[in-house]
């Protein structure tokens, strides 16, 4: 069977969400000997890779919101708007699970039918342009989700959590 628009979007986002869940779980359950002994859950979520970047909680917020926005767009529904950044790991996991559920409910034929559909698309805080579902997926959403998941990974590494390349790829391996 030929590779479809669905194949290049929904399973990819599912894999990224599973990776995000995996690295957060590893950080909270088995951070390793190099992890900061003084970090608490609340400070953990406020940790940044560097001062001018968003903290971990916002990396989770952005990755999940972008994924939810695309799932909604490709299934012809309004996106769930999450309230702010998660303040606990439990909220982070709930948000990831909500997105995974939405992605899991996406029907292939519906998603494939949205690839070339032009719609007004928010591409910044104030910018809206006509964009196809495929353009939105591949030029806006997927690069952003990859970026925010990788930045979350970098924050965890910076804090001494023992995550490696295998952990980043965790969500992409067959379950």
Automatic annotation (TrEMBL):
According to the lineage, what is the superkingdom?
Eukaryota
**Coiled-coil zones:** none
Please give the InterPro entries that the UniProt record associates with this protein.
DinB/YfiT-like (IPR034660), DUF1993 (IPR018531)
Name under which the protein is recorded:
DUF1993 domain-containing protein
Q: What's the source species for this entry?
A: Penicillium daleae
Lineage, top ranks: Eukaryota, Fungi, Dikarya, Ascomycota, Pezizomycotina
């Amino acid at each position: 069977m030929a590779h479809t628009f669905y194949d290049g979007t929904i399973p990819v986002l599912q894999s990224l969400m599973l990776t995000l869940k995996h690295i957060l779980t590893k950080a909270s359950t088995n951070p390793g000997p190099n992890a900061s002994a003084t970090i608490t859950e609340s400070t953990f979520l406020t940790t940044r890779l560097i001062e001018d970047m968003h903290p971990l909680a916002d990396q989770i917020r952005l990755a999940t919101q972008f994924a939810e926005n695309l799932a909604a767009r490709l299934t012809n529904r309004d996106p769930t708007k999450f309230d702010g950044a998660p303040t606990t790991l439990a909220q982070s996991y709930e948000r990831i699970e909500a997105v995974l559920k939405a992605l899991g409910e996406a029907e292939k034929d519906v998603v494939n039918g949205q690839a070339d559909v032009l719609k007004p698309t928010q591409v910044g805080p104030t910018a809206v342009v006509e964009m196809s579902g495929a353009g939105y997926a591949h030029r806006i959403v997927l690069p952003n989700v990859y970026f925010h998941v990788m930045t979350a990974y970098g924050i965890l590494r910076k804090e001494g959590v023992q995550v490696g390349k295998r952990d980043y790829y965790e969500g992409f391996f067959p379950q």
